[in-house]
Amino acid sequence: MESQGSPPIELWLRAVRVGLAATALVLASMTALLVLPVDGTIAREPFAATLAVAALVAVAIRLAPWHRLLSERGPLLLYVWSIADIALISVVVTITGGARSEFYVLYALTTVFFAACYPIRVQVVMLGVTAAGYLTALVAVGGTLAPGTLVFRLGAIGAVFLISSFLSRELIRQVDEHGEARRRAERWAELLSSVAAAARSTTLEPERVLEVALRAIPELGFETAAICSVDETEHVVTVVRAVGPPDGPTSGAELALTDADGNPIVGSGTTALLHDYDR
């Protein structure tokens, strides 16, 4: 999820912190299944081994220099992390009964994460990886899962994906709109500041008025500005005073107010393309 108004690295760094906190909470909850009475039975050794691997992955994620990694490689390692989490969930589903396992609900957590943080194309790929991981877990165990149940479970994960992705895009759009509104407000503040400064420093002397006006225009973001006089008799515009780059208009430069055939355009009521100033 790339915002136009906010730095992606800062978003990804916050996502890493939230992802680690959620991982720690899930691991703690799953550890409780090993020490507290539960419904049914769990293959304790494979389950504990999977938790240990997940904990090691979380520690590695916590110790990684994420700011440097994200600056150099972008979100690639975040994608790898999501795929690793999906794979670990699939392993848990496999060792807890496949079709009978209730741990498929953990896919919802990884789905919310990648729907909130990744570009839409990557989100779709990750959703496909999730579906493939769950189907692989079901095939690995064997057994049977009624088609209706399978469609319901995959559909539920898909619904979580759609809602999370929609909310994420809407929030990003609002952030971008607020950022654009802030930039427009700052622009208008600069404009008013320039106008106020020009008003404070101007006098009624014509030359001084021209000087102050031209000095204020570049502060508004324009590279070139010129004050010209129009001679309707000679059909010529003459630059009285100008500011800007060396190749811009200079004082005394003239611009003919005639079309390509030399006909006057003042008062013609039509739009005409004029040649550049003669310097």
Q: How would you portray this structure in words?
A:
- The protein has 279 residues and is mostly helical.
- The protein contains eight helices and three strands.
- The protein has helices at 8-35, 44-63, 66-73, 76-95, 107-117, 120-141, 147-201, 206-216, and strands at residues 225-231, 236-243, 254-256.
- Strands 1-2-3 form a three-stranded antiparallel beta sheet.
- Strand 1 and strand 2 (236-243) form a beta hairpin.
- Helix 4 runs parallel beside helix 6, helix 5 runs parallel beside helix 7 (147-201) and helix 6 runs antiparallel to helix 7.
- It is elongated, with a radius of gyration of 33 Å.
- It starts with 7 loop residues before the first helix and ends in a 23-residue tail after the last strand.
- The relative contact order is 0.07.
